[in-house]
Amino acid sequence: MQNRIKKVAFHTLGCKLNYAETSTIARKFEAAGYIKKEFNEAADLYVINTCSVTENADREFRKIVHRAKRISPDSKIAVIGCYAQLRPDAIIESAAVDLVLGAKEKFNILQHIDFETSHSEPLIIQDSQIDDIHGCTPSYSVGDRTRSFLKIQDGCDYPCTYCTIPMARGKSRSIAPDILMEQVHEIAALGVKEIVLTGVNVGDYRFGNDFKLIDLLQQLDEVQGIERYRISSIEPNLLTDEIIDFVARSRTILPHFHIPLQAGSDTVLGLMKRRYGVELYKDRIQAVRSKMPDAGIGVDVIVGFPGEDEFEFEQTYSLIESLDISYLHVFTYSERPNTEAIQLPGKVGLRERKARNKRLTDLSQRKNMAFALRQINKPQKVLFESRHNGQISGMTENYLKIHVASHEIGLENQIIDVELTAVVDSMYMARILT
Asked: pLDDT class for 202, splitting at 50, 70, 90?
């Protein structure tokens, strides 16, 4: 092992922020002389970047470890990410791993990899409390030629009762704007056309006393070489009129907002300790629509939260049905250890949680279809990404995935004017405008 170049493979669970961090760590390994392999290929080391937002993420982690060991039984397994920070003991009890790194040490993983020493027990390295972690390691993803995830912020100061992220990632902190500008130029030099701004609480981006997200957006808008930026997600109470007005006239910031709602009941929002009510949320949707009638608007919602009785759920359903939005991300509430919500009364049965998820998922499909039909015969700019079965697909500025029947070569990673023409089997079809 010592005399040959070692192979490393990576697997990422969870959010865009995790993908940005995995990509940065992978580049560190390649710079150190490792050969990067796909996760379904034989490797000496498998690095798994974990999530712990949902119970499904925990189960998926165990499957991934077993898959790696089937491919390379003698390989080392290193685990990083939110689950590694929150539940390292559960990780080593449930799967055959060699190294578990907490939040502070994940970017120092190369220092902890040891192929020559055989340890009888997995190494767990967490040398600080999460609230003692300061600074924010810059990260961005590469590998997808059309799009890069750029981390601008980490951690969260919000006390949402269902959420483990502050325990996994610590307090809110942001990356210096000059470092972000350097990274944007690096990404542009790779030929990437679109950057997605990511973080735990992107709207809370702030550096120093006065530099906030709006200031960063204004700086990014002036950078040559990147044609599109998306804001990955922004809390409704942080989506200011100033940000909305700027995006509406921006050269590069796309008319696409993902605005978490979580519940359409003020009672449930209070139990969740969210920082807004239903009226503020409705106002923010209307503010976006008044400036950008065709903007894409996505919504996160949690169903089956403790205290969400049938009346409260119907309030959520009715609110979302009334809102002019584009799509939903529906999450079924699952109990997470050490959160306040796990102690709340009014538990909702699993069958009812799934039924509510299904109703909102169906509503999301109808909302997305209605939004797409409004775009029929309107010109759109699409960043083409991939080709399959004689069709090439890509994303519009307002986040519709469209398909064009074309065998023309060289369209990938190009921004092309198209016109949405029809909906066929739930696929949005378009033609290239000449």
From this structure: very high
Per-residue pLDDT of 69-90, as tens digits, reads 999 999 999 999 998 888 888 8
End-to-end CA distance of the chain: 57
CATH architecture of structural domain 7-128: 3-Layer(aba) Sandwich (3.40)
Instruction: Give 109-140 pLDDT, tens digit per residue.
Output: 999 988 876 666 777 876 556 766 778 899 99
| pTM over the 0.90 mark | yes
Q: Would you state the pLDDT for residue 53?
A: 65
CATH among 2.40.50, 3.40.50, 2.40.160, 2.60.40 for 379-432 = 2.40.50
| Rounded CA separation 258/327 (Å) | 9
Per-residue burial over 103-123, b = 16 or more CB atoms within 10 Å of its CB, e = otherwise: bbbbbebeeebeeeeeeeebe
- Distance from C-alpha of 248 to C-alpha of 298, rounded to nearest angstrom: 17
Going by C-alpha positions, the residue among 233, 240, 213 that lies closest to residue 299 is 233
Q: Two tokens at 263?
A: 């519940």
CA pair distance 130, 122, nearest whole angstrom: 21
Half-sphere exposure of 379 (CA within 13 A, CB side): 5
Q: How far is CA 294 from the centre of its chain?
A: 23
| Best CA proximity match to 179, nearest among 215, 221, 137, 148 | 137
CB atoms within 10 A of CB 169: 24
DSSP string, 298-339: EEEEEES-TT--HHHHHHHHHHHHHS--SEEEEEE----TT-
Digit-coded pLDDT (tens) for 37-67: 999 999 999 999 998 766 666 678 888 999 9
Supply 369's token pair.
Answer: 């279809």
pLDDT at residue 1 greater than cutoff 60: no
**C-alpha–C-alpha distance, residues 306 and 314, integer Å:** 15
Choose among 273, 263, 271, 346: nearest CA to 302: 263
Between 64 and 143, where is the model more confident?
A: 64
Q: Pick one of 3.30.750.210, 3.30.70.330, 3.40.50.1820, 3.30.70.20 as the CATH number of 134-254.
A: 3.30.750.210
